[in-house]
């Protein structure tokens, strides 16, 4: 797969990257993350420039997420039931996503992308729940900037260990995302308790 994606990006350049991350952001089975890492390798080899690659990654991923958000907002839950096989959606995964979204929309939008079974639902669920567009765009942009920057840097500086790094990211990032969600919920809960206690004084 590495050689195939490297050849694809070498021929199509940033246009290929744009298409890849767009599809990735829509939650469809596609190695968009791997494409970003390989783009980082090409940057390290002097074949691409980091600022432009980062801008394309950010724009492409944002565009894909916005498309998914609009689909979720206008087609709603029945769409997911009809397309469950394409999106690898299970009823349990859908219910889990709804529960997390109800508890904390920002945490779901930013960290939900790290969680298997939920990551491909994140922008769709935000649309189904009718979260405000600019609200969604803000938190999705925070995730996109961090994700794109991390993967490009990994490719630039650790490209020679690509297979090890890719395997590590695929196995450890879900755990990191889950830990971040737990920490955020604890922080949010403690903040609300402190606020209520202050009001009662």
Overview of the structural elements:
The mean pLDDT is 76. 37% of the residues are buried. The chain has helices spanning 2-12, 14-25, 32-44, 50-82, 91-103, 105-111, 122-128, 133-158, 162-200. The chain contains nine helices and no strands. It is 80% helix and 0% strand. Helix 1 packs across helix 3 (32-44) and helix 2 runs parallel beside helix 4 (50-82). By secondary structure, the protein is an all-alpha fold. It has one domain.
Q: What's the total number of strands?
A: 0
Alpha-beta content class: mainly alpha
The run of helices and strands is: HHHHHHHHH
Give Rg in angstroms. Answer: 18 Å
On the 0 to 100 scale, the average pLDDT is: 76
Instruction: Report the end-to-end length measured between terminal Cα atoms.
Output: 62 Å
**Strand residues, percent:** under 5%
Portion in helices? over 70%
Query: What general form does the structure show?
Result: globular
Number of domains: 1
Describe the largest sheet.
none
Q: Low-confidence segments, ≥5 residues, pLDDT <50? A: none
Helix count from the secondary structure assignment: 9
């Amino acid at each position: 797969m590495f050689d195939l994606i490297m050849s694809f990006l070498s021929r199509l350049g940033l246009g290929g990257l744009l298409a890849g991350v767009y599809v990735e952001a829509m939650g469809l089975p596609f190695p968009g993350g791997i494409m970003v890492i390989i783009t980082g390798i090409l940057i390290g080899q002097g074949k691409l420039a980091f600022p432009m690659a980062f801008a394309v990654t950010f724009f492409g991923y944002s565009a894909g997420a916005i498309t998914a958000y609009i689909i979720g907002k206008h087609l709603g839950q029945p769409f997911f039931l009809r397309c469950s096989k394409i999106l690898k959606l299970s009823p349990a995964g859908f219910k889990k996503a709804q529960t997390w979204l109800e508890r904390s929309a920002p945490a779901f939008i930013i960290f939900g992308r790290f969680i298997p079974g939920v990551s491909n639902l994140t922008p769709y669920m935000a649309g189904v729940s009718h979260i405000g567009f600019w609200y969604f765009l803000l938190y999705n942009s925070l995730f996109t900037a961090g994700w794109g920057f991390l993967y490009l840097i990994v490719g630039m500086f650790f490209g020679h260990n690509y297979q090890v790094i890719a395997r590590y990211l695929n196995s450890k990032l879900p755990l990191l995302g889950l830990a971040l969600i737990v920490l955020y919920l604890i922080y949010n809960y403690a903040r609300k308790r402190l606020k209520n206690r202050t009001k009662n004084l």
